[in-house]
Description:
Blueprint lengths: L2 H5 L4 E5 L8 H11 L6 E5 L1 H10 L3 H10 L2 H6 L9 E3 L2 H11 L10 E8 L5 E4 L4 H8 L4 E3 L2 E3 L2 E5 L8 H6 L4 E7 L3 H8 L11 H4 L11 H23 L4 E5 L12 H13 L2 H6 L8 H8 L1
Parallel strand pairs: 1-2, 1-9, 2-4, 3-6, 9-10
Antiparallel strand pairs: 4-5, 4-8, 7-8
Helix pairs in contact: 2-12, 3-4, 3-7, 6-7
Amino acid sequence: xxxxxxxxxxxxxxxxxxxxxxxxxxxxxxxxxxxxxxxxxxxxxxxxxxxxxxxxxxxxxxxxxxxxxxxxxxxxxxxxxxxxxxxxxxxxxxxxxxxxxxxxxxxxxxxxxxxxxxxxxxxxxxxxxxxxxxxxxxxxxxxxxxxxxxxxxxxxxxxxxxxxxxxxxxxxxxxxxxxxxxxxxxxxxxxxxxxxxxxxxxxxxxxxxxxxxxxxxxxxxxxxxxxxxxxxxxxxxxxxxxxxxxxxxxxxxxxxxxxxxxxxxxxxxxxxxxxxxxxxxxxxxxxxxxxxxxxxxxxxxxxxx
Length: 305
């Protein structure tokens, strides 16, 4: 490949969607794409997509993968540090500490890739794109699920989960200059399970059971964490459908992970495998796209460092 063609190479963008624990599938997607020489230049993420996308953009995906694979149900519960502020069930301080171990004082401005995360302004309801400053702070704002995690203040604005406004940020990738956008999303099954199996059979957040147990609550009735997550899951699904219909990606990768609960972070091995399989199904579609141009061995080696 000539020097001139390298300069003119089209940019590939990847939009990593929300989905809590199901977002571990994003790791598998990125791993599979890399094995086939596909290295996105532009990355945008919402919620768990911001976590995976930030680590990928910073070259720390291996560390995140190791962390995800180390999680057990007990370790997940250990990260649920109860909040006394009334702003959310959990402070998120322990998760912040884990992110800081991998990303330290990394700022957006130092990243080798274009990266942005989506959050929601809790006062105005506006969609906020975070592209400057401390990476960990921005990621925390993007996954601050209302009622579950405390909101994060940035530049005088209180921000929480971006999935409320833009669960799969395809438009962000386009705004950052991507010529081809790959969207990565999971499957929502919470609402359909309620309709087909009944409320008592729905248990997407099993790891929160010990936190919200109450002897006075009838068997099968969800506690606050499950109720909030369930409602959020339904809203996220509807918003995703609407946003993707209005601004469809060039390639869609749908990880079939709806059978896994949104708090099942201990199932990373299964989720990563699901992501890899989903990516394999669209490899031909990616390489056939008019904007796609595979990188030479030099580019691939640089991206892998």
